[in-house]
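// run 5 | inverse folding | seed 20
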């Protein structure tokens, strides 16, 4: 396997009408990695991905995909990447199997259209017109079309949007299979559980700049350092609990009804004292997370902080 990263973004800048959509963004994606690109609407995700796909040219900085310039080397790069758009844009009068066979004809080496149809669970819809497919079925077809050319790098934009739980799980299995065969996946999603489940690393961008980068585990552990979060009955005497834990009264806070944060380094002794106090009060413990927050909580924390860059995506 080549030591050259699959994707390199180096100080990428792109503006529209003088307003920066991406401002000095830098990150790399290793080959065979599932990499999540997360951010609120208008953060710069779409501009970044479209630049990597060769649809937009940077105003400043550079991007490389498989060590190629997505714009200058487009003819060489296009057969090696797969792109799944949130809106597929297929002719509504075509049928799924017809579309897959058509796209397969564009590649010298391609996957079996029939096998891909089975892989994404669309065999019963093989002869149905695209315009009659549900939103989730269209998403699955878009995924199959992105994979038809056996791509080395796959760009997936909100791949499970509109899917039912079964189809969502099937899509997750497909993405895992891509990683197992050595493909690189760039995934944009608003589903934090999806990113936490699938991604080796995630980059969170806001206002066109990078605000967090790391594995989901690293980000959730670092954000939750020095805190223990638990759920129980609402309205607990937090001052009494703090005293039982040998902490200052303000160290225990009820952030929402029934949701509590203990601002102290987690330790076996603190957890034991917490559960013992709840037992003595006759209160059932709901959920307990020591020294860790969810990826969604990390996302909300880092994207709510002021950012130096601030543009809107078109």
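// decoded
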């Amino acid at each position: 396997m080549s030591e050259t990263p699959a994707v390199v973004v180096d100080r990428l800048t792109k503006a529209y009408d003088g307003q920066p959509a991406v401002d000095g963004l830098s990150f790399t994606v290793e080959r065979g990695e599932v990499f999540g690109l997360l951010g609120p609407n208008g953060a710069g995700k779409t501009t970044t991905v479209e630049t990597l796909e060769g649809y937009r040219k940077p105003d400043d900085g550079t991007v490389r995909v498989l060590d190629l310039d997505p714009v200058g080397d487009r003819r060489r790069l296009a057969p090696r990447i797969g792109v799944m758009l949130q809106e597929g844009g297929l002719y509504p009068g075509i049928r799924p199997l017809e579309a897959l066979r058509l796209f397969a004809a564009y590649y010298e080496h391609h996957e079996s259209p029939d096998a891909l149809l089975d892989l994404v669970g669309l065999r019963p819809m093989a002869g149905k017109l695209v315009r009659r497919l549900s939103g989730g079925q269209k998403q699955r077809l878009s995924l199959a079309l992105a994979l038809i050319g056996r791509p080395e790098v796959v760009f997936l934009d909100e791949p499970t949007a509109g899917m039912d739980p079964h189809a969502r799980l099937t899509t997750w299995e497909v993405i895992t299979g891509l990683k197992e065969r050595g493909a690189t996946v760039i995934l944009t999603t608003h589903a934090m559980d999806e990113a936490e489940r699938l991604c080796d690393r995630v980059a969170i961008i806001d206002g066109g700049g990078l605000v967090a980068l790391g594995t989901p585990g690293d980000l959730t552990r670092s954000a939750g350092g020095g805190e223990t979060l638990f759920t129980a009955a609402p309205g607990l005497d937090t001052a009494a609990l703090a005293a039982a834990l040998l902490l200052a009264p303000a160290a225990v806070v009820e952030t929402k009804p029934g949701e509590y944060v203990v601002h102290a380094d987690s330790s076996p002794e603190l957890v034991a004292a917490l559960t013992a106090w709840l037992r003595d009060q006759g209160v059932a413990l709901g959920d307990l997370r020591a020294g860790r927050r969810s990826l969604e909580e990390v996302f909300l924390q880092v994207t709510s902080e002021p950012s130096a860059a601030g543009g809107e995506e078109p």
